[in-house]
Amino acid sequence: MMDGKIRLGIIGIGNMGSAHAKHVAEGKCPDFELAAVADVKPSRLQWAGENLPGTVLRYDSAEALLD
Prior knowledge:
Number of helices: 3
Distance between the termini: 19 Å
Radius of gyration: 11 Å
Structural class: alpha/beta
Strand content: 15-25%
Order of helices and strands: EHEHEH
Helix content: 25-40%
Largest sheet: 3 strands, parallel
Shape: globular
């Protein structure tokens, strides 16, 4: 972490989680970098792939993200 940002992983990207993810990805939370998201619903992971930067990792469970 050379830029000093806190790497953030969001578990659950429904209404609230997707809003948080978008704010961080858009730079509205300058101390954070969105590193990963997790959700059990494939449609939400597809949304993440289409709407979040390509560097954001996507996982199909909280356990996978935490590993």
